[in-house]
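thread: overnight batch results

M.L. [08:02]
morning all. the overnight job finished for the chain we discussed friday. pasting input first so we're all looking at the same thing
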Amino acid sequence: MIMRRQRIVLTLVLSPLIFLFLSIQISAAEKAEHYNCYTILVGKKASISGAVLFAHNEDDWGDQVVYWYKVPRQRHVAGEEYTLKHGGKLPQVAETWSYLWMEIPDMDFADSFLNEWGVAIASNACPSRRAEADLTNGGIDYDLRRLIAERARTAREGVKLAGQLIEHFGYNSSGRTYSIADPNEAWLLAVVRGKLWLAQRVPDDAVAMIPNYYIIGEVNLNDTLNFLAASAIVTYAIEQGWYHPDSNQPFNFRLTYSNPDELTNINNRARHWRGLNTLAACSFALTDSFPTTFKPKQKISRTDLFQVLRQHYENTDLDTPSNPHANSTMTICSVANQYGFVAELRNWLPPAIGAVIWIAPRRPCVMPFFPIYVGVSQLPPGMAPHNYQIAQAQHFNPAPDLYNPNYKLLYWQCAKATQFVDDDWNNRSQIQIKRRQAFESKLQCHHDRFDVRLVRNFAKKTDDCQKALDNYISKTTHRLQQFIVQ
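M.L. [08:03]
and the structure it wrote out:
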């Protein structure tokens, strides 16, 4: 794909203040590196149901395809090793957990996971100011989230495991924020190129929102219940002259380690601003300093998060009268969106039925969210072209026909339907959105009734629970495919 450099001049009118942002140049290559993804974490006391909620849009530029797998638990023999992408090795554990895997082949940072304990992982690119770093055996990048899915029973365990791996191997990318959640807690794990990291727990009654810059600000590293970090996170900054403790200013991770250009970039700030003003108890101007976490104006449901993931600056000065995916300012639901999800992580139920992930393939604004329980034994045909073993072996060496449309697969069906709407947005979008709303409403009602029956039968330990769960997922995806092709 040929990358063309575009000049984007951004002028925002904020009544009564007129605020002129800098003219910036963003190439498609820069977008691919810096403006990927959008995430919301909701503490269990901030949600209507009491579940921890985890919403994510996966944005990846250029030609992409998405496959979905259920990977089973696996036993490993003594002496077995796990080999990282760049050649580093670590001892394999005796048993790895099962998980749902959302894969974008040939990508380092696009996959998302939900394991059998309800531990969910996704990430956002957050460029740091660190240009070079020491790495051991090539460092770690792609494998970090898979290892968390395979080995962690809680989000906190996942953070600690990631920290150990980063400090041993070094992180082989500019910077990133991993969101890691379980049915009790949600964590932000900010990683800097090399062997530096810092994590903050999202308060139970609060919400965190991440575009593509670090959001963790002032920290209390003595509070190990809510903060964890590499031992050198402050001393390294002092050595580099990025932080001066004699200034009597508290250590602020965001201001210390961020690439400064990202903190003011309209593609980050506008998405953050839009989400805040949708969910937060107080309103924000685009020029304000945004909080790491905030209290919502009311308790949040999964459908509230569906709507945030679908937004394009409607009814704001950044709105566009034409196709919103052609907006020069990146939208929450963007042209690069490959899938969206909202995970419901319920701690009062066994994880097999308490952890449910609602997925919108390709683009949430025109595609419905449909549910998958993590306890499903297998996914139905059409979610992937082959089994998970082949996918793991070929992730960085995919088949030559990877981007040839295959309309037997769910992703390609959704991509075709989405493109059809985009080709004539003004005439087709409202028709599709009304269809999506009607379908999704019926699907959620059906799901809620099934969920009640499933919980009751699971408590009775009836033998047909697994069969009922698998049949439900199969029927739901079949209904989705019928909706798409109509």
